[in-house]
Amino acid sequence: MRFDLLKILLVDDNPHMRLLLIEILRAVGVRQVYEAVDGTEALAILRKVAVDVVFTDLSMKGLDGIEFVNLVRRSPDSPNPFCPIVMITGHSTERRVHEARDAGVNEFLAKPVTARGVVHRLGLLIENPRAFVRSQAYVGPDRRRRDDARYQGDRRRDEDRGVTYVDVFQSPKHTPRA
């Protein structure tokens, strides 16, 4: 993977965590890293820079990670609703994971953060992108990670129930460059 081509936005109110993530990203070759201390600052950066991936903390003062992701995914004036987002948190309870998933997060990374975990999440985003789903109840990546042809159960999602699939990775604007 060509990590040197990626533009990554880190959103975390903890400067030590941002520094740790920057060091991990630089060690694997990422050269363009942008920093924000909360969701409000991150939205301003997204309006100026076409980032490829966002890593955001869940719990921040001001606009937290869940609210930030909701604005990126659902706001009519969102600068990039299809941008891949990795939620990072030390609060990896089932409830918080579901909140992040339901907000439209692509991947979830529990603290303590490791280089292996960061690289693995980047690999998932780049090598295994998921289609984007837009419905009345959900906006974000398809929650199903694979399409099993042998699956016999109820798919619970039909085109006639108001779901739109958007293949965002056909557009160079929304494709991670690595």
CATH superfamily: Response regulator
Q: Any idea what the CATH architecture is? A: 3-Layer(aba) Sandwich
From the alpha-carbon coordinates, what is the Rg to the nearest angstrom? 16 Å
CATH fold topology: Rossmann fold
Proportion in β-strands: 15-25%
Biased composition (Basic and acidic residues): 143-162
Domain Response regulatory: 7-126
InterPro entries: CheY-like_superfamily, Sig_transdc_resp-reg_receiver, ST_Response_Regulator
Region (Disordered): 143-178
What report would you give on this structure?
By secondary structure, the protein is of the alpha/beta class. The protein has a single domain, classed as Rossmann fold (3-Layer(aba) Sandwich). The chain is 31% helix and 19% strand. The protein contains five helices and eight strands; from the N terminus they run βαβαβαβαβαβββ. The strands form two sheets. A five-stranded parallel sheet has the order 2-1-3-4-5, sandwiched between helices. The protein starts with 6 loop residues before the first strand and ends in a 12-residue tail after the last strand. Residues 169-175 have low confidence and may be disordered. The modification 4-aspartylphosphate is found at residue 57.
In short:
The protein is 31% helix and 19% strand.
Keywords:
178 residues, alpha/beta, Rossmann fold, 5-stranded parallel beta sheet, 3-stranded antiparallel beta sheet, 5 helices, 8 strands, 31% helix, globular, CheY-like_superfamily, ST_Response_Regulator, Response regulator
